[in-house]
Amino acid sequence: MSLSFYSPFVSTGHFHCNHQNHISPPSTTTTTSALSPSLNRRRKERRSVLTRSLDLMDVCGVDSEGKEFNSAQEMWREEIGEEGDETKKTQWYRDGVSYWEGVEASVDGVLGGYGHVNDADILGSEVFLKTLMQERLVNVNGGTNQHLVALDCGSGIGRITKNLLIRYFNEVDLLEPVAQFLDAARENLASAGSETHKATNFFCVPLQEFTPAAGRYDVIWVQWCIGHLTDDDFVSFFNRAKGCLKPGGFFVVKENLCKNGFVLDKEDRSITRSDPYFKQLFRRCGLHLYQTKDQKGLPQELFAVKMYALTIDTPPKVHRTRSKTRSNRPQIIK
Ligand SMILES: C[S@@+](CC[C@H](N)C(=O)[O-])C[C@H]1O[C@@H](n2cnc3c(N)ncnc32)[C@H](O)[C@@H]1O
Predict the structure, then answer these.
(1) Whose CA is nearest to atom 18 of ligand 1?
(2) Strand, coil or helix: 329
(3) What's the CA gap between 38 and 243, in Å, rounded?
(4) Which terminus of the chain has fewer Cβ atoms in its 10 Å neighbourhood, N or C?
(5) What span, in angstroms and rounded, lies between the C-alpha atoms of 59 and 38?
């Protein structure tokens, strides 16, 4: 995969909607002033809809070919058909996997030609994970829970497990629908870890078809893959996975964010969601937003990346003086 506009990591500029997702629009992009008055009016209407009722998901979005959608529902109807029509949905998932089947099984491959962001990404994740583990996985004796287990979802070639998870967890399971990636992960992890820190299970299935083992995991890590799931499958996955967390366990979702609405990538069949879009889905899952953090140090042309820590238990009330920072404290998704 090249560093083209269609790289899953590059913030696409192919749209005319009210989005500010683009870095620099391609020369073919129509400017606002060149638009007809009615199109300008439509944009203004959309802008007011965006600010008024994100809750209803009636946010506009665009695809990588410049097509605009008035709502996420409109886009999903077009991409996966009406409810109950499994043919189009099956094709959506098949196309997503086929795309990745054509990508080299390397760090550069799974990062869309941006292999050099690996270090910054892992460092950002490690700082986030460490804080969360100290807060949530420490037992009454002040040590971490006895035997820690993580699940790496859409693991690709095992990049995150190898560089991060295996150092903190006694066991890591990997889930990845592309067989060649999972084979590479198995190879990459063969010499990583130790007797007490190892990759255990390699599941070659897509997230939408997976139900993790009940009560097995302290952390379920979902990074750069949930954009392949439709909204309903997203919600359904987290609902199934809730029962697989141990007490104190949590989800980490680390994903690209567009500024508003959504951006559909026609090439790899994925969507980049905005922060409010994610929050609405988390709320539909009945998850609590425990902590969030922006990933720093990534190249400017890429989408912004955010980490969300989500719990199934209600976060405890935090009693702080007004002078303490309000950011990053546990909160229920509003
Ligand atoms: C951008 S790569 C990221 C891989 C890995 N998470 C990382 O950060 O190194 C996206 C991954 O999502 C996987 N993927 C595609 N469709 C998926 C699905 N339906 N369920 C789970 N993973 C999927 C791809 O095969 C690919 O390995």
Answers:
(1) 206
(2) coil
(3) 50
(4) C
(5) 19
Closest CA to 159 of 130, 129, 189: 189
Is residue 6 predicted with pLDDT exceeding 70? no
Ligand 1 atom, smallest distance to 8 CA? 1
CA distances in angstroms from 40 to 16, 17, 18, 44, 46, listed in the order given: 10, 10, 10, 6, 10
Q: How many CB atoms lie within 10 A of CB 295?
A: 21
160 Cβ below 6 A of ligand 1: yes
For residue 207, the CA-to-ligand 1 centroid distance in Å is 9
Domain limits, the chain? 1-44+57-334
**Closest ligand 1 atom, residue 111 Cα:** 1
Q: What is the pTM of this model?
A: 0.83
pLDDT in tens, 34-43: 333 343 444 4
Which amino acid is residue 302, in one-letter code?
L
Name the DSSP letter for residue 246: E
pLDDT averaged over every residue in the chain: 83
User: For 215-247, what is each residue's pLDDT tens digit?
Assistant: 999 999 999 999 999 999 999 999 999 999 999
Distance from residue 147's CA to the centre of ligand 1 (Å): 27
Judge if the beta carbon of residue 228 lies within 6 A of ligand 1.
yes
Give domain 1-44+57-334's CATH superfamily: Vaccinia Virus protein VP39 (3.40.50.150)
Closest by alpha carbon to 136, among 289, 249, 246, 253?
249
* Any ligand 1 atom below 6 A from CB of 234: no
Which residues fall within 8 angstroms of residue 204, CB to CB, at 6 or more apart?
176, 177, 179, 182
Whether the predicted pLDDT of 31 surpasses 60: no
